[in-house]
Amino acid sequence: MGEASAGRKAAVAGxxxxxxxxxxxxxxxxGAASYFARRVLTPDxxxxxxxxxxxxxxxxxxxxxxxxxRAPGRYGLWLDRDRGHARVGQVLDLxxxxxxxxxxxxxxxxxxLTGGFARWNQYYFASPPDRSLGxxxxxxxxxxxxxxxxxxxxxxxxxxxxxxxxxxGRGARRQEGLRAVxxxxxxxINVMIPSYRxxxxxxxGPDGRYNLGLxxxxxxxxxxLHAVRRGARELVLxxxxxxxxxxxQTLSRSWLADHVTHVVLDAPVIDWGDxxxxxxxxxxxxxxxxxxxxxxxxxRSARRxxxxxxxxxxxxxxxxxxxxxxxxxxxxxxxxxxxxxPVGPSLALADARPDLVTMERWEVARHTKEWNxxxxxxxxxxxxxxxx
Length: 388
Fold this sequence. Notes:
Layout: H1 2-41, E1 51-57, E2 60-64, E3 75-79, E4 84-95, E5 100-110, E6 116-121, H2 129-132, E7 138-144, E8 147-154, E9 162-167, H3 181-186, E10 190-194, H4 217-229, E11 234-240, H5 242-253, E12 260-266, H6 272-282, H7 287-297, H8 303-306, E13 330-335, H9 344-352, E14 357-362, H10 370-373, H11 375-387
Parallel strand pairs: 9-10, 9-11, 11-12, 12-13, 13-14
Antiparallel strand pairs: 1-2, 1-6, 2-5, 3-4, 3-6, 4-5, 7-8, 8-10
Helix pairs in contact: 1-7, 4-5, 6-7
């Protein structure tokens, strides 16, 4: 009896210990998945400086070498925590050994360019359209369900019932759309660059989190309604990165889709599941945790864990599987070396819907920088598409 009782006690103790370990492991997995999900959905309020300015010499600037600063094309540099901005052009000299790259200095828009640290950006243009492009600009407020949101409107040179709405990406600013203004304006189109929820300087959503396009589309619908009230009969939607995901939700869910004639997507998120899995791999997160994070986003019971007001159903953002639902002509611009939003889903969508999707494939550009590498090609592609 004693030995049998002791054996049972040992067995129970072992089971309890094993159960505790398993429970702790499960809690750890859920915690890691919840943390990763929150990181995906949380706006980046302050981006760190990522570029070292080593020397400024007349019409050139020498920078520390990194994948951005060695890339071909023209770009912007935020200076002194956004109190300044400079524009740089092509690489003049590259010395990988010393870690120095000298580029053209195309101008200092405001502030002072000196040695120290700066932040690289693909916007190139830093100020509103009137100051950066010399085009008449209206500063308007768009009525939304959350309150008014600021927007820029660049009226066409002559009266037009065509309007383009430019939608920036995750963590980006309205300035991201400035590169598209000139070709659209030259095509006789009114151009609107709106804010949406959780933008810097705009209203926050109910939870202060990104919803991967699943709620942001309503703010773009309101921007479109603003255009319709001002006489728009045709809408052109243009989206970069997550802005592409927002545009696709707008096409699927908004009554304004009937007004849309052309869609331009630059490095768009065609499938958030693919993007999240890519970033999980890049950050060394095990695939099961990455998969669980996507599942938690969509569960109503996990809203507090993830920190969202409404579930974020990642499956609804997969436009490769939903390709048959598309009805609008799309110009899809994407570089095969995109390090942030992999090109695979874009290529798959183009293959699935060749009747609607025109694929413009870049070879060297990285994320949303196709215009920067070859602005003439980008603008000609967009001009030809919206004029067809």
